[in-house]
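User: Structure please.
Assistant: Input sequence and predicted structure:
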Amino acid sequence: MNLGRRIVYDSITGGIVLDTGEETNATERPVWNGITYIDIPFGQDSDKYSRVVKYHVDINTKKVVFDQLGPVIVTDDAKFNALFKSVLAFNTQINNNNKLATLTEEIVNALKTVIIGSGN
């Protein structure tokens, strides 16, 4: 079972006291009586939690508020994969219209070769 975060917070200020993080292959969590906490579903806002600098819980809504996030880091692999997906989508559109299909197919095959070659 995958368990999301459990965030323990100060019931007056909303300040974070403990963030358990996510757990994979875990058992069910017990109920903690007398402690103010919220359980976040597994995977929810994982991109934000990976970049969080400062956050708190809104004590009225019981929702996490991200006060400050670090920058999104885009790797060269991610940029290349985005380019590859764009060209593949373009290729599919062209093939559906039967225009320049051979040229775009060659471009996609060249990109596939680079991807497979870069993994070695």
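Residues 76-118 form one domain.
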